[in-house]
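Troubleshooting: if your tokenizer reports a length mismatch, compare your output against this known-good record of 489 residues.
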Amino acid sequence: MPEAQPAPAAAAPVPLLVDGQRRLASRSESMPVLEPATGRALALVPLCGPEDVDRAVLAAAHALPAWRDVPVPERAQVLFRYKALLEREHEALAASVARENGKLLEDARAEVRRGIDVVDFACGMPTLAQGRTVEGIARGIDSHTWRVPVGVVAGICPFNFPAMIPLWMFPIAIAAGNVFVLKPSERTPLTGLRLAELFLEAGLPPGVLNVVHGGRDAVDALLDHPLVQAVSFVGSEGVARHVYTRAAASGKRVQAMAGAKNHLLVLPDADLDLTVKAIMGSAFGAAGQRCLAGSVLVPVGAAAEPVLERVSAAARATRMGDPFAADSAMGPVIREDVRARVRRYIEQGLAEGAALLVDGRRAGDDGGFYVGPTVFDRVRPDSPLAREEIFGPVLSTLRAETVEEAVALANGSRYGNAASIFTTSGRAAAYFRRHVQAGMVGVNVGVAAPMAFFPFAGWKGSFFGDLHATGEDAVRFYTETRVVIERWT
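Known-good structure output:
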């Protein structure tokens, strides 16, 4: 977690949002919010402690009884108004994401759109929250199940999707009758705050959605607070494990989405034009800073040489630059320490004897946190390049002779977020779908991202918990099941 740093002179403090009001943090400790493309300070984010978290949680708890009692169709009307405001502010929100995260504006627009899709899904809560009834389950007795809100929910979000991941969480939770405390990433706090303010503009009552900022102190305060009943988290494996363990020990329900090492299998019969385009988007989109990034390429047999030749050529031709420039094909990574970490992985791969086909280490030395697309071949399956989540634009190649061997390589990962196969063979695709150990499976799709109506379903070390984010799983996570058994005689 970050340490406090001196305040840049021109940076304004990022406020909290508590009980419908902007307010300054109690603590003076803070860190700069940096623009990855330039390194300049955009704002100063406070590193909140237990006292500010407690105020936000108490405000949420105070708002809970009244909001829980609002009929679900009326809650849905607030969501409809919120969606309309998000549509109105779509371009401004995308610009905010691109500025504080560094991803291309086109990519940021797509991110905001995926978040709005979840709000659209949450507008259906009058149907999603329906229970079941059995009349005459025994003589003179009827039985019903109801979905009721769990109470105060906390959402802890990562830097890589400042708009989409908060919108995975609080719209569904709030539509279901809960109240929410959002902690955006301290690296990208501005978009999340704006999302919350727009919800208030839509008519959400004060206290139903609150925003705090900070690092580990704020996270642990949310995990330990006795009034927080459920925690949603997205981030690295180590932090996800900490969140799950600590929150579950306090009796909270937890969904913690963690790391990934996603494999892209390419068979000799694959459509190379489609495949190379998909690989480039998967491996290098958002500078590889996605849990659905394809970071391990597994060409099968004769597919290796042609696909590597074309991917390498495309990687060398990739233009890095200003996220707002129309001719930029990739933006920066989030911080200098991330760029340094990616470079260390490249150097380690060279030391292990892997073949470096495209070297991105020297990119962007003239400003911003840039590192270029990097492609390795002949990587050992036990190498950190093949096993660890680098979270940067590095594609590592493991060769296989058969589809069965390729699937076994993918299944050797401790992660199980996503995997994709590129083929025109129905038999190979069927084998892959059945046997690969991943929660999200793509066939001729580079980024196997489910739409809002389906769960974001990581397996193995990519997820800690039971019910996943988005879709019906999210509705179940944010609601308790109440069973009513009644006799009227």
